[in-house]
């Protein structure tokens, strides 16, 4: 008789798992150890079909088992839209969106190559624009975001991707302008220095 291949046995090693679990819980504010894998979050996740087998419950399971590499590099971390459907359905109110945000930060801090570079560029450009002006300026934000995409594709000689992105963004811009949903003016708000001080203080605390 032919022997069927057995699935690999998952081994729990507390000395490896506990530090990761504690770090993610402290930084995200979410009680990961309260998850009992009911999968209600998976049933309601709008990007579940796009992330393969990595659904919110699986991601929490990966963290609880201490698999740092897979926790920082999987489709859900980079494609989660932070809709918090998971948290509203969870009996213990675990917001996976806050967990994925934490894992994005951890991946960036450890220089893990993002599975979705555009998502990383979006977050980076959004934060920098907000710190510079105290609020988001659409024209500047889109310009810097697209420049990052352009140089990324150019470094890999993806000329077709560059052309398709330019055409796509021009069509989108024209459509938004027609509906008066795209603003080119620069606006700022008060308290920018305080905002930057808080941001620097937060970064210093994480590095300590």
Number of contiguous helices: 11
Order of helices and strands: HHHHHHHHHHH
Question: What's the multimeric state?
Answer: single chain
CATH class of the largest domain: Mainly Alpha
Tell me the span between the first and last alpha carbons.
59 Å
The parts where pLDDT drops under 50 for at least 5 residues are: none
The count of DSSP E runs of length 2 or more, i.e. the number of strands, is 0
| CATH T-level topology of the largest domain | Fumarate Reductase Iron-sulfur Protein, Chain B, domain 2
CATH superfamily of the largest domain: Alpha-helical ferredoxin
Class from secondary-structure proportions: mainly alpha
Name the average pLDDT.
Answer: 88
- Globally, the shape reads globular
Q: Under the CATH scheme, which architecture of the largest domain would be assigned?
A: Orthogonal Bundle
What Rg do the Cα atoms give? 20 Å
